[in-house]
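Summary for the steering committee. One of the milestones for this cycle was to obtain a three-dimensional model of the protein with adenosine-5'-diphosphate bound, which we needed before selecting residues for the alanine scan. The sequence and ligand used are listed below.
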Amino acid sequence: MSRIVMKFGGTSVADLDRIRNVARRVKREVEAGNEVAVVVSAMSGVTNQLVAYCQQLSPLHDAREYDAVVATGENVTSGLMAIALQEIGVDARSWQGWQIPLRTDDQHGKARIESVDGNLLIQRMQMGEVPVVAGFQGIGPDNRVATLGRGGSDTSAVALAAAVKADRCDIYTDVDGIYTTDPRIVPNARKLPRIAYEEMLELASVGAKVLQTRSVELAMKERVRVQVLSSFADADGGDLPGSLVVDEDEIVEKEIVAGIAYSRDEAKVTVRRVPDRPGIAANIFGPLSEAGINVDMIVQNIAADSTTDMTFTLSRTDLPRAQAVLEAHRDTIGFAEILSDPSVAKISVVGVGMRSHAGVAATMFKTLAAKSINIQVISTSEIKVSVLIGSDYTELAVRALHTAYGLDAA
Ligand code: ADP
Ligand code: ASP
Ligand code: MG
């Protein structure tokens, strides 16, 4: 007998037929003698619609009310899934984040999990019941619902798996594993049977949406065995054909580049003609960080006079708030104007092999140059190189790089 957490993403629960299909899959795991807890996302498109409602009413809406609105998508699916399971003879009960409780910090809209009580779920599973937990949500220190950031149901699943000491955390989605890049952009991307935690963490953090970054972070810390697999393929049970996220030393054949990711959720901001003197970066980025806005790539351009331009990237959804924060600090920063460009994309190549192999960045720059793609900003880390380009070139860049690093399937 194993204890398994099964998480189903939005497309896997997109309509009643798919919910029934998922319920049958859960039933098979239960009938195989396993203790099962289920985590569900909102039905495909629902969260986007709820986010859009908030934005249309107010671009700078209250984050607590945003959470009150967007958390409802998962409430619906957890109830529907419990009904679908009961209908086929599986004892099931839905649970919302506050009922577990899954406690978070106070960062509404992108809260981090602080603790998860596994007792209730363990008790229920031991009674032969399948708990169906609404993903993406918990309860904050203010006693209000808090959501975990887009894609957060993955993190709910891994956190619950750690709390109930599950043998596996299976993340069911609309692709049958983790690929060398998004298979929707590069049809001949290769499926990776195994990927190192660190590589998956880096790929997720630069845009590979298949797993939320924090879910990988948590899995790595808590040693949760995460498997990504399709809810549409026929396979089920122990012999699962998905991709496993594992320790680096469990991977025999290491490639220099494990994968390529892109993110279109970026925006570029240039703060023009700020005084070039000590403290200016602190004056710009201090208030942004206090407002909970994460800044990613940063470049400071050298100017001929005593001023400079500071360019940085951030999540596109944070752009209106960042502009408001900078305007509010116009006097202390002393800039001439703020330019913003939402039509940018970040392309990243990731691989632990970069630690010991030179030339990965040079190959990237040459490949993009050969396609006449202009690089606007560059940033690197130990196992990653990222570039910012015009978003229209995203597909072209990802495909060219995938070929250049020899990742295309034979
Ligand atoms: P879910 O709704 O199940 O959480 P997501 O849309 O969040 O699903 O994540 C799955 C999607 O991630 C896939 O449909 C695919 O387009 C995308 N994706 C991006 N990068 C990768 C990758 N390297 N491997 C697999 N899928 C990827
Ligand atoms: N429904 C949420 C979202 O779309 C959480 C998730 O699906 O993981 O971001
Ligand atoms: Mg997801």
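Key point for the committee: The chain has a mean pLDDT of 94.
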